[in-house]
Amino acid sequence: MALFRKKTAAKSKPVAGAGAGGKDTTYLGRKLKVKGTVSGDGNVIILGQLEGKFDLKGELTIAEPANVSGEIRAGLISVKGLAEGTLIAHDKLHLEPSAKVYGKVHAQTVSMREGAQLDGEMAMSSSPGRPAKKGGAS
């Protein structure tokens, strides 16, 4: 009988605009130019231009043809466009073939597809954003 059937939990469907981890995703459009500081807990996809400081706890995608310059911090940074300055990925930095990165890069993990350009300094450590100690462990 249907009256005594065990109820199953309904599967949740992703919410429109939700990115990885169920965080909201914000798009900065191709025709937007943003100067200043952007911070928060969510995912951001940049299609336009951003100049300044960027501090995000979620994922950042610098899409093609985006142009980003300044200090960029995020959990995961994926670059398909142009990024200049300091990029600090707390978890991972991923560069697509169309990526052009100029400056300093700090990340725990880095992946680059063939064709990606990285011109500058790169430091990989378990604590991105902190310079590695020279001369071995103390």
How would you characterize this protein structure?
There is one protein chain. This protein has 138 residues and is mainly β. It has one domain (24-124). It has strands at residues 25-28, 33-40, 43-46, 49-56, 59-62, 67-79, 82-95, 100-112, 117-124. Strands 1, 2, 3, 4, 5, 6, 7, 8 and 9 form a nine-stranded parallel β-sheet that branches. The protein is globular. Mean pLDDT is 83; it is low at 5-20.
Distance between the termini: 70 Å
Q: Tell me the count of domains.
A: 1
Average pLDDT reading = 83
Question: What oligomeric state do the depicted chains represent?
Answer: single chain
Share of helix among residues? under 10%
Strand portion: over 45%
Shape category: globular
Counting helices, strands and paired strands, the structural category is mainly beta
Write the H/E string, N to C: EEEEEEEEE
Number of helices: 0
Which residues sit in consecutive blocks of at least 5 with pLDDT less than 50? 5-20
Radius of gyration: 19 Å
The largest β sheet comes out as: 9 strands, parallel
